User: Fold these one by one.
Assistant:
Number 1:
Amino acid sequence: MDNPYPEHAAWIELSAKAFKNNVNIYRNVLGSGTLLGSVLKGNAYGHGFQESLSILHPLVDLIFVISPIDAYKIRKYEALNSMAQKRVVVLGPISAHEALLCAQQEIEVTIADASWESLILETQAWAAERSSEFKKLKGHIHVDTGLGREGFTLDGLDKKVEFLKKLSPWLHVQGVMTHFSNVEDVTTQDYALGQVDGLNAAHNLISKTLNVPYKLEKHAAQSAASLILNSSHADLVRAGIGLYGLWPSRETKLSAVVVLQHTPKLQPALSWKCRSQSIKWVPAGSYIGYGCSFRAERSLRIGLFPVGYFDGYPRLMSGNAHVLVNGHRCKILGRVMMNHIIVDLTDATSDESPVVATLLGRDGGENISAELLAEWAQTINYEIVARIGAHLKRLVVDS
Ligand SMILES: *Cc1c(COP(=O)(O)O)cnc(C)c1O
């Protein structure tokens, strides 16, 4: 069989050990009363959906995705590997047809606005027409306690959720959730505590209004709140970035020392590497890259690497960035191109044989973090990893 993956391309290495370490950190902070959910949206924060799923599935209690398509992939993965089903929750919007598939596959959904009334009735009609069984769909009511994104706002909330009573033959309300706005941006959590109060009030009100004979679940915490805001833990958390080993922000890391009395050692699970395409000497005075933006002051050994902004390596980093080769920091010369970067290898190698550059991750004593790339590209670590091209090969390198 031919290898369908090109030999000359950048790739991603994932450390299963790092994922396990991060899961343990979250489990220790949460204790046994709170379920650990992992968020696999955005191609698992760029880490690769299938690869991250294979590592995280056995380690966590439930899995959150944005798209129902990802949820079906989880069910398929479980069936193929004869694994027990984990709870799966779709956070994003779905269609009536998708609602039917979710119900059939026991995938939970998020009820974020009044459009769900017609959606469920349409789903029900659809199922009846095809005489397919419409199992009860489990849904979490999303309340907007201050993010101003999806969810029911708190004013007149009891009236807004009344319609769910009518839908009870088809819709099982599983819980009430909210999402924080600025836990990561601050070191005092007044705003978030207000959101927790809002969620508690919403949970009470919805419990009373729907008057179901079981306890509704309650959840709010993402990675940051899971670590630094105990009062947000409730029944379960939805941790994204932290399980991949990245800190949600510097403020969160600082707050963790205060709240936990130590800084948990999150380990980044992802490294990004690329093998050189060619290495050559250029004489002093040569220009390198588009726009003649770099001129060699002396003769240089330069390496061409087949990775660029198409792969998610931001062009905005041109002029700032370095990569690691043989444990040396090597400057990127000139501009980041669509499919190429050019790197100064003069001090990093002694000949022109191929080398591997680390764009993100460790090499020897040096480390390039997602935070450093984010600084160079004027963004946050979330965007750096989430934008790494889905076409790049992901390899799990340890277990
Ligand atoms: C993205 C997201 C999370 C996870 O956020 P992290 O900061 O990555 O932990 C949790 N809940 C919802 C609704 C989200 O959209």
Number 2:
Amino acid sequence: MSIAGNLAIVKRNIQLAQEKRKTLTGIDEPVNLIAVTKNHGIDEMEEAITAGATVVGENRVQEALAKYDHFQRQLEYHLLGHLQTNKVKQAVFLFDLIHSVDSLKLAEHISRAAVKIEKVQPILLEVNVAQEASKFGMKLDEVIPFLNEAADLPGISIQGLMTVAPHFEDPEATRPFFHSLYEKFLEVKALSWSNCMMKWLSMGMTNDYVVAVEEGANMVRVGTAIFGERDYAIELTRR
Ligand SMILES: *Cc1c(COP(=O)(O)O)cnc(C)c1O
């Protein structure tokens, strides 16, 4: 199957999940698809763009910069992976949305870098709903204390929550984790901080995006289902 064919299937599955959600809850919201291009090359990205992809997700700043060198602002770039403080400056230059903010220290670094270039950097808070030791992210009950602490930070716009669910053979098993984050999303949405608006709920990957949309995700991050398996031997870095 071609990248265009895969993309069409993913979009169709998202649409079916949206329809199911609408039938069950009455809620009908558009879903943004992030094409996760990490460890895929320029040619594959060209194919995806021709097929209509406009937003790409990357895990590493250097790799994303190499792609930016080629595509410039033709694409919207999202950072999905863990961000080290020594890469913050480049990340703030490049990314339209940073999904992986998981500490106040990182938010402070982003704030400073953004203020310096007169940008307001959109960010999401990464939540480790299942509290897996192998994953980044704050706990569910740390979200509101975080927002209280971050309320004074200039140069950032906190626009939602993100999670990576535990991996299960049966994606149904992810449902309670997505549901918990959706409830937190609603809880935060009802509160008010000047630099925070709950717009995006980023959850769902190749294995579980259908369940995530059914549970309220309005941003899904899909790589393998569009591009096939990643070849980790290929590593694009900036010249
Ligand atoms: C790699 C990655 C994805 C995409 O994963 P697939 O299973 O290939 O769809 C989504 N989100 C994050 C945070 C990732 O690191």
